[in-house]
Design goal:
Blueprint: E1 2-5, E2 17-20, H1 26-40, E3 53-56, H2 64-71, E4 79-82, H3 90-102, E5 106-109, H4 112-120, H5 126-134, E6 137-140, H6 147-155, E7 162-164, H7 182-185, E8 193-196, E9 199-200, H8 211-214, E10 220-221, H9 224-238, E11 242-245, H10 256-270, E12 275-280, H11 290-297, E13 299-307, H12 311-316, H13 327-336, E14 340-347, H14 354-366, E15 372-377, H15 385-393, H16 420-432, H17 435-444, H18 450-467, E16 476-479, H19 494-526, H20 531-550, H21 553-570, H22 575-582, H23 587-590, H24 596-610, H25 619-642
Parallel strand pairs: 1-3, 1-4, 4-5, 5-6, 6-7, 8-11, 11-12, 12-13, 13-14, 14-15
Antiparallel strand pairs: 2-16, 9-10
Helix pairs in contact: 9-10, 10-11, 14-16, 17-19, 18-19, 24-25
Bound molecules: cobalamin and iron/sulfur cluster (SF4).
Residues 202, 204-206, 209, 211-212, 248-249, 281, 305 line the site of iron/sulfur cluster.
Length: 647
C-alpha cells in the first residue's frame, strides 16, 4: 500500500519540495492509521501481508519507477493511493497517476478536489473524467468506515471507477486516530509536532468554503478516550508534545470541553504536558469557559477566521456571524488568556480595493493589535458555493488548477487591474510583517508566547519574501529535482540545471543572511530581559527622574561629570574586562540591545571598499567587529535553539 500526499508545481514547473517541511500531513497520517488498523485486525485475510509506505511529495522525492518495479515482484501487488488531493495539487497528482497507470498499478485518488467537484456538480468535469478513462479510481467523501471494502476490491481486481460516500459520513467516535512514524517526522523542522482532526463539520455557511459541502454541517467527533490513548502513546513513543488540531472550527466540536479537561488532566496527573493550536470562529470567545479551559489545557495559539473588517464583504461572503464591532473585545479575550492570536484575512472580496487593503492592514495592526495574520487571495475553490455560482454564470476562472493556492489571481476582480490584486496581497504581507510591527508585537506579547511567535515570523518571512509563496505551502530550503518537471516544461541538461541551482542558492544565501540579521536585531531589541537587567533599568530610571526633578541645570551637568569620574571606581574592573574594553569587545556594555553600530561599521567599510579608499579601512577594527558579530550571532542561535520547540 503506497500512500502519497502530492505537492504542487511552482510557476517554473518544478515540484514544490523542501529539505524540511513545517507540518506533517494529517490526511496521510489518517489513511496510514486506517490501513495499519486493517493490517492489525487482519481484516483483508489471514494470509495477506500488508506493507505500508507513506510518501509526502512536499518533503521527499517520489520514486515512481521503483514503486512500479516493486509491483512486478512475484506474489506482490502494489496499490497507490493519492491522498488529500486539494485543487492546487490536482495537476501534480494527475501526472503521478498517469505514470503509475502506465506502469500497470492500481491507482486511487481522493481528497477535497474530487470530493468538492463531485459534491456540487452532477456531471463529471473533464480533468476527473480523463483520470477515470485511464483507469484511476476516484473516491468521493470520507472512508473511515469503507477503506477495508475499497482495498478488498483492489485485491480482487474489482475496483469501481467512482466510490461515492458523501451521503455516508462516518461516525468518528472510536475510529483510528491519525498517527505518524518517527521516520516521517524527521523530515520536518521540529520533530515534536503532531496533527489530529478531533472532529469534522461546521454549522456555518460561508460562500468561499468547501468544507461544509464535503464534510457537512453536522459536528462529528472522536471520543475523548480514543484521543487520550493516541496522545499518550504519541508522547511516549515519538515525543510528540505539540499538536495542530486541524478541526476547521474546534469551538463547534461538541466535545471541546472533554478534550480540554483531558489535556489538563494529562498535564496534572501524568506529567504529559501538551501544547496545541486550534482553529476557531470569531464568536468562540463568547462560549462560557471556552477560552479559560483552552488556556488551562495548553493552547498556545488560536487561528481565527476573521476574513475581513468590512461588514459589506462579510455579508457578501455569507459570513454574517462575524461582527466587526466585536473584534476588539474578541482579541482582548484571547490576549487575556495569554493565547497568541493569528487571524486569517481574505483579500479580493467584492468591496476590496487596492487602497482599502492597505488601510485594512494598518487597522489590523493599529486598531485591533492582532499579533499574527495570514493573508489569502479569494479563490473560487472547487467545492465552494462561489465556484459553483461562477461556473453556472460562465464567469472567467483560471483553467490551471495549480494556481488555486490562495497566492495567485484566479479570477478577474473589477476593482483591481491585472496584477494589482496580487501586488496588494504582497503589500499587505510586507506591511504587516514590517520590522517595526514585529518589534511592537514581540515587545508586548506574553513571555510564554515569545518564541512561538518569533519562530512563526521567521517562517512567514522566509515563505513570502524569500520563497515568494504562501507560508502554508513552504518549508525550509527549496529542492528542485531536475527530471521531475511539469509536462510542457523542458528537462534541462545537467549543466543548465547546475547553473540554475547555483543562481538559486546564491540568491537564497543572500536573502537568508539579510533575514537572519533582521531577526537577530529583532531579538536584541525585544528579548526577555533578565531580572537583574530589569532591576538595573528600573533603578537607573528612578535615579534619573529623581535627579532631573531635584537639580538645577548646572548641578545636573556637574552630577553627570562626577558620575563619569566616580562610577567606574565603584567596582574595580578585572584585568580581563579591561582588556575587553580596550579592544572594543565589551558586548554587555556596547551592543546588548542592537547591532546597529556594527551594521553602520560594515556599511562604511563597504562604501570605502567600493570607492577604493581602502586606507580608511582599519584591519584590526574589521577583525574586532567580525568577532563581535560572530559572538552576537552565536548568542542569538543559542537563544533560538534553547527556546522550547513549538509550532
Ligand atoms: C489542516 C489543513 C491544512 C494544513 C495542512 C497540513 C496538515 N497538517 O495536514 C495547512 C495549514 C498547511 C493547509 C494549507 C493549505 N490548505 Co488546507 N486544510 C486543512 C484542513 C483544515 C484539514 C485537513 C485535514 O486534516 N482533514 C482531515 C482529513 C482526514 O480529511 P481529508 O483530507 O478530507 O481526508 C479524508 C477523505 O477526504 C478521504 N480521502 C482523502 N484522500 C483520499 C485518498 C483516497 C485514495 C481515499 C480512498 C480516500 C481519501 O479519506 C480521509 C478520511 O476520511 C482542510 C479542511 C478539512 N476539513 O479537511 C483544509 C483544506 C484541505 N485546505 C485547503 C486549502 C485551499 C489550503 C491551501 C491551498 C490554502 C492556503 N493557502 O492555506 C494550503 C495549501 C497547502 C498545501 N500544499 O497543502 C482547502 C482545499 C480546497 C480545495 N478544493 O482545494 C480545504 C478543504 C479548506 C478550505 N479552505 O476549503 N491546510
Ligand atoms: S466558519 Fe470556517 S469552516 Fe465554517 S463554513 Fe465558514 S469558513 Fe467554512
Amino acid at each position: 500500500m503506497v500512500l502519497i500526499k502530492p505537492s504542487k508545481y511552482d510557476d517554473e514547473g518544478y515540484v514544490i519540495r523542501h529539505f524540511r517541511g513545517v507540518l506533517p500531513s494529517n490526511t496521510l497520517a489518517c489513511l496510514s492509521s486506517l490501513t495499519e488498523d486493517l493490517k492489525r485486525r487482519r481484516a483483508l485475510g489471514h494470509n495477506l501481508e500488508i506493507r505500508i509506505r507513506i510518501f509526502d511529495d512536499t518533503v521527499q522525492p517520489i520514486h515512481v519507477d521503483r514503486i512500479i518495479r516493486a509491483n512486478k515482484l512475484p506474489r506482490n501487488r502494489t496499490v497507490v493511493a493519492l491522498v488529500g488531493v486539494q485543487s492546487n495539487q490536482f495537476p501534480r497528482a494527475a501526472d503521478l497517476a498517469r505514470r503509475f497507470r502506465a506502469g500497470g498499478l492500481q491507482v486511487l485518488i481522493g481528497g477535497f478536489h474530487v470530493s468538492g467537484i463531485l459534491a456540487l456538480f452532477s456531471e463529471i468535469r473533464s480533468e476527473i473524467q480523463e483520470l477515470i478513462d485511464l483507469g484511476v479510481t476516484v473516491v468521493k467523501g470520507e472512508v473511515e468506515e469503507t477503506w477495508g471494502d475499497i482495498l478488498e476490491d483492489a485485491l480482487y481486481d474489482r475496483l469501481r471507477p467512482i466510490y461515492d460516500f458523501l451521503d455516508r459520513k462516518p461516525d468518528l467516535y472510536d475510529k483510528p486516530v491519525p498517527t505518524i512514524t518517527r521516520s516521517y517526522l524527521k523530515r520536518f523542522i521540529t520533530s515534536n509536532p503532531g496533527t489530529i482532526d478531533c472532529g469534522r463539520g461546521c454549522p456555518y455557511n460561508c460562500s468561499f468554503c468547501t468544507i461544509i459541502n464535503v464534510q457537512g454541517h453536522k459536528a462529528r467527533f472522536r471520543s475523548v478516550e480514543t484521543l487520550t490513548r493516541a496522545i499518550r502513546e504519541n508522547y511516549k513513543r515519538h515525543g510528540i508534545d505539540f499538536y495542530f488540531f486541524t478541526d476547521d472550527n474546534f469551538a463547534r466540536n461538541a466535545c471541546w470541553r472533554g478534550v480540554f479537561e483531558m489535556l489538563a488532566r494529562l498535564r496534572a496527573e501524568e506529567d504529559i504536558s501538551i501544547r496545541f493550536m486550534i482553529q476557531v470562529d470569531t464568536q468562540s470567545y463568547k462560549i462560557p469557559d471556552f477560552v479559560e479551559l483552552a488556556a488551562g489545557a495548553g493552547c498556545t495559539q488560536v487561528f481565527i477566521g476573521m476574513e475581513s473588517i468590512n461588514p459589506k464583504n462579510l455579508k457578501a461572503a455569507g459570513k454574517a456571524q462575524n461582527k466587526v464591532q466585536e473584534y476588539r473585545e474578541m482579541i482582548a479575550a484571547w490576549h487575556g488568556a495569554k493565547i497568541a492570536r493569528h487571524i486569517a484575512y481574505i483579500i479580493g472580496f467584492p468591496f476590496d480595493t487596492p487602497e482599502s487593503v492597505e488601510e485594512d492592514a494598518k487597522c489590523l495592526k493599529q486598531d485591533l493589535g492582532v499579533e499574527q495574520a495570514s493573508f489569502f487571495m479569494l479563490t473560487p475553490l472547487p467545492g465552494s458555493q462561489d465556484h459553483a455560482r461562477m461556473v453556472r454564470a460562465g464567469e472567467y476562472m483560471d483553467p490551471d488548477l495549480n494556481t488555486y493556492d490562495s497566492f495567485h489571481e484566479t479570477t478577474r476582480h473589477p476593482n483591481f487591474a491585472p496584477g494589482e490584486w496580487y501586488a496588494a496581497c504582497r503589500k499587505a504581507w510586507r506591511s504587516f510583517y514590517s520590522f517595526d510591527y514585529m518589534r511592537h508585537v514581540l515587545a508586548n506579547t506574553n513571555p510564554e508566547n515569545y518564541w512561538n511567535i518569533f519562530r512563526n515570523f521567521i517562517w512567514y518571512k522566509n515563505s513570502v519574501h524569500i520563497e515568494g509563496g504562501h507560508p502554508m505551502v513552504h518549508g525550509l530550503f527549496r529542492m528542485k529535482d531536475r527530471t521531475d518537471r511539469r509536462p510542457g516544461f523542458p528537462i534541462e541538461s545537467h549543466l543548465r540545471h547546475f547553473v540554475r541551482r547555483f543562481r538559486d542558492v546564491r540568491s537564497l544565501a543572500r536573502k537568508w543572511i539579510a533575514l537572519v540579521l533582521e531577526m537577530e536585531e529583532l531579538w536584541l531589541q525585544t528579548r526577555n530581559r533578565s531580572k537583574a537587567e530589569l532591576r538595573l533599568i528600573f533603578e537607573l530610571k528612578r535615579a534619573r527622574e529623581g535627579v532631573n526633578r531635584n537639580l538645577r541645570t548646572a548641578e545636573l551637568q556637574l552630577a553627570h561629570y562626577r558620575a563619569k569620574v566616580h562610577v567606574p571606581e565603584l567596582r574595580a574592573p578585572s584585568r580581563l574586562s579591561l582588556a575587553f574594553r580596550e579592544f572594543n569587545l565589551d558586548l554587555a556594555r556596547r551592543v546588548t540591545y542592537s547591532r546597529a553600530d556594527i551594521q553602520k561599521f560594515w556599511n562604511n567599510t563597504w562604501k570605502s571598499w567600493r570607492r577604493r579608499k581602502t586606507f580608511l579601512i582599519r584591519p584590526h577594527k574589521v577583525f574586532l567587529n567580525f568577532l563581535r558579530d560572530a559572538e552576537l550571532m552565536l548568542l542569538f542561535a543559542a537563544a533560538l535553539l534553547r527556546a522550547q520547540p513549538d509550532s
